[in-house]
Amino acid sequence: MTTGTAEAGARGAADTRTRLLDTALRLFTEHGVEGTSLQMIADALGVTKAAVYYHFKAKDEITEAVTEPALRELDAIVTEASKQRRRGAQIDHLLAGFIDLVVRHRALVALFSSDPGVARAVEKSIHGSEDFKQGLLGLLCGDNPDTAAMVTAHVALAGLAMAGGSPAMAALDDETLREALLEVGRRLLGRPRHRTA
Amino acid sequence: MTTGTAEAGARGAADTRTRLLDTALRLFTEHGVEGTSLQMIADALGVTKAAVYYHFKAKDEITEAVTEPALRELDAIVTEASKQRRRGAQIDHLLAGFIDLVVRHRALVALFSSDPGVARAVEKSIHGSEDFKQGLLGLLCGDNPDTAAMVTAHVALAGLAMAGGSPAMAALDDETLREALLEVGRRLLGRPRHRTA
DNA sequence: GTCTATACCGCGATAGAC
DNA sequence: GTCTATCGCGGTATAGAC
Q: What span, in angstroms and rounded, lies between the C-alpha atoms of B28 and B39?
């Protein structure tokens, strides 16, 4: 993409796209997706609305692009966790990975949990790999998804994500939050509590 | 049904308002708040947008009005729970009341947890009684709100609410869901599990 | 007191000039 | 690649019919 004469081309194209996504994420976390207009993004970049539309055909595409990296990470975590042989190890792997993801992408997660635009984008992004949406729950529930296990899994995933993204936790550093969430998650899923990494 | 002048006057006001809120809640749960326009609400009622605007000065007021009954119930639950003398009883009371509320108002709760418009409305509605927003957490955390307790409380409230409102639980009847959530909540908050009411 | 007609402005989105 | 111009729809607002 950046070959030869394309210094300007590389900057105008890919770099503007990157700047746009950075700006969008910042504005999204400040005002929500709904509360962020394309005009605001364009102004922050010093271009017009139509220029933004050159890079993304619709606002939804921006939302999707913003959430994509985190979703790919989540997909990788689920895949890797499912490779573990013992069920306990699967859950441990998934729990640690999920929580780590939530902590590192706190701002995004907060958005994720409170914005239907983001939820829509997420659902679209995982159109191909629906395995992993159900896989997440499947790994936690085991082979026999009885009511109690299903409810527990839902409470765990939703609760850990929302608590991690909550403004009330913003003051906590990553280490502290991660350990606190891990302990709660372990208790919830019936895993023995152990090493404080 | 006849549009006689007297009957229209008697029926038009309060009843239209009620019908409007019922319709709004239905459309909100179907399409989300953002995805429901005043035009859609007006069409469903057989009136014009301006007629809707007569009953509510802004869309946010509709959202607030829709969430208000559940919030009042929650407020009552917190108040009553705080009157319990033993801390264990406070938690038990709060947990049971909260979960019962979530189960009975599932559709609203699902909306509540995934729509910034609703979240905004909720924050506005409790302007006067901010006691109870913090009171909810305060009752769960006790006097010493250390990190672990705070995180646990957040995971519990958010997780139980979102799990209860999740489409995945829609097939469960109230009794079953309530008991499943109660058991998870008790384990999470370190309460002994007991009677299946 | 309840509703209709109408207008305003900002939003997401499209078409076409440079 | 970026711009200007324009469109339709959304929430909001007012004047006035009944």
A: 13
* pLDDT, tens digit (0-9, with 9 covering 90-100), for A119-150: 888 888 876 555 666 788 999 998 778 999 99
pTM of the predicted protein model: 0.90
Encode pLDDT of B8-61 as tens digits.
Answer: 444 566 789 999 999 999 999 999 999 999 999 999 999 999 999 999 999 999
Q: How far is the CA of B186 from the C1' of C4 (A)?
A: 56
Give the whole-angstrom CA distance, residue A140 versus residue A160: 14
Q: What is the DSSP string of A115-159?
A: -HHHHHHHHHHTSTTHHHHHHHHHHHH-S---HHHHHHHHHHHHH
| Domains contained in chain B, CATH given | 1-57 (1.10.10.60), 66-197 (1.10.357.10)
- What is the DSSP code string of A51-68? HHHHH-SSHHHHHHHHHH
CA distance A12 to chain B (A): 34
The reply to whether A106 Cβ lies less than 7 angstroms from strand C is no
| A166, closest residue in chain B (CA to CA) | B154
Token pair for residue B186? 């008790």
DSSP state for residue B105 in the 8-state scheme = T
- Nucleotides in chain D near protein beta carbons (<7 Å): 1-5, 9-15
